Amino acid sequence: MKRHYFIILTTILVLIMGCATPRINIFSVTPDPLKEYTLEGTGADKILLIPIYGLISDNPKKGLITATPSLVEQVVSQINKAQKDKQIKAVLFKINSPGGTITASDLLYHEISAYKEKTGSKIVISMMDLATSGAYYMSLPADIIMAHPTTITGSVGVISLQPKVKGLMDKIGLGVDVQKVGKYKDMASPFRDTSEEERKLLQKAMNDFGERFMGLVKKHRQLTPQAIAEISTARVFLADEALQMGLIDKIGYISDAVKETKKIAKISEDAKLIVYRRAEFPEDNYYNIAGAASENLNVSVINIELPEILSAKAGFYYLWPGAVSTE
After folding, report:
1. Does residue 224 lie in a domain region?
2. Are 179 and 271 in contact (CB under 8 A)?
């Protein structure tokens, strides 16, 4: 019985702490600077390939031992480096993501838009398995959005994740004494039910975030009223459907996206396709999912990454929850 209560209490603490994880600093590691590596080509002009994998967040990704920079930090560090290289004529984002927090998604949208305006570089999106919700949001400034034939995209909407532990606490006889100043100070608290009035306030916030998302879709994409109505349901679309709706421009493989990038950037066929990494990968190619956070491969460090769902804290998301990794 004691063990049963211990498991329940541990579960409650994990939920309360926003699924926080212990961080043990066994090693003091200073990341190596980003270095440029050529995947193919020998020409003077360059295309920078940036991978976007996993949950879009501006929080570091924590393992049991180490933490890696957030996805937003990784992308921005590469964009900032690219601004200093006048030979980079285009950036190709290879995306495999279900979306993420509304702020992190909006940050990437802003940074990509600003980079495009400052440099005049072309932006191309190549969608892999997934580019839903926040991942689609960040893709909107692109000159061309291309999906893999088996891509799932769409999910243009907002979801709120609010864990509740009240029922479980009632069963084991636990309670939380809350004292507050301000009627709505503990709104969305996990320790009590949400009132109808509070639900309306939360829904208003979600409506505002949803309207912002849909407004940007209308701004960047030429959509029919019928397509807008269908997309507004926040359903996901297969590549063929997304093309028909106007969410994407083309269907093709990443090699096709590279060719299309060279075409719209008006650069030669032998232009270099480059990546920024912190470590060199033997026989590297554009299917390598390693991002800018990758460290020296010769260093053996225990870094057990926790399931992606555990990094999703309470809040508002541009996210398709059906695709969040639990492995």
Report:
1. yes
2. no
DSSP run (H or E) holding 213: helix 196-220
Order of all β-strands in the sheet with 159-161: 99-101, 315-319, 159-161
Residue 167 tokens read as 């029922």
128, part of any domain: yes
29 lies in a domain?
Answer: yes
Kindly calculate the radius of gyration of the chain based on its CA atoms and give it in whole angstroms.
22
- Distance of alpha carbon 169 from alpha carbon 239, whole angstroms: 45
For 111-150, how does the pLDDT look when each residue is reduced to its tens digit (9 = 90+)? Answer: 999 999 999 999 999 999 999 999 999 999 999 999 999 9
pLDDT over 90 at 32, yes or no: no
Per the domain annotation, does 184 fall within a domain? Answer: no
Q: Is 34 helix (H, G, I), strand (E, B) or coil?
A: coil
Q: Which residue has the higher pLDDT, 152 or 8?
A: 152
Query: Residue ranges of the alpha helices (H) in the chain?
Result: 2-16, 71-83, 102-119, 134-137, 166-172, 196-220, 225-231, 239-245, 254-265
Q: Give the residue numbers spanning the domain of 158.
A: 17-173+190-323
What is the count of structural domains for the chain? Answer: 1
Number of residues assigned to the chain: 327
Which tokens hold the place of 303?
């870094």
Query: What CA–CA distances, in Å, run from 184 to 200, 207, 280, 313?
Result: 12, 19, 52, 20
Determine the straight-line distance between the first and last CA of the chain, rounded to whole angstroms.
29
Rounded CA separation 41/200 (Å): 56
The label of the residue with tokens 């949208």 reads: 109
14 CB-contact burial (10 Å; exposed 0-12 / middle 13-18 / buried 19+): middle
Closest CA to 300 of 21, 24, 29, 22: 29
Nearest in space to 132 (alpha carbons), one of 162, 160, 158, 161: 158
CATH assignment at residue 23? 3.90.226.10
Distance CA 114, CA 119 (A): 9
Whole-model pTM: value is 0.81
